[in-house]
Amino acid sequence: MSHTPTLRSLLFFFGLYGICSGSLQDADNCTNYRLQFEKVFSVPGEMAMLNSTLVSPDVFDFNTVPYTITWLDSKTGEEISNQTGRVLVRGETLWFLNVTLDDSGEYVTILRTPSRCYRQATKLVVHLPLPGECGRPKKIRQILTKGINDKLSCPLNDYIYKLDSYNVSISLTWHKGCEPIRNEMDEYIYRPRSTLLINKVDGKNHHNYTCTLNFTLGGVTGSVSETIDACVIEEHSMVPQVHEPTNGTISAQIGSNFSQLCSVFVPGVGLPFVDVLWCQLNKFEIFTSIDPADRIYITYQPLRHQDGPNKGVWLEVLLTFSELRKEDFHINFTCQAQSSRGHPQAYFTLVPADPNILIPIGSLFGCVMVFFIISVIIYYMFKVDIVLCFRRVFPVLYTNKDMDGRLYDAYVACLQPCAIGFSEEVETFTLQTLPRVLEKACGYKLFIAGRDCVPGEAIVDSVEENIQASRRLLLLYTASTFSSKKHTSSTSSSSSNNNNLSKNNNSEDNGESKMGEGGSGERSEEVFPDTRQNLEVLLAMHKTLLEGSLKVVLVELEEITSAQLALFPESVQHLRKKQGAVCWWREQRKKQRRRTCMTRREDEEKAEGDVQLSPSLSPSSRFWKEIRYYMPVRGKRAVYPERTALLNL
Question: What is the pTM of this model?
Answer without folding.
Answer: 0.41
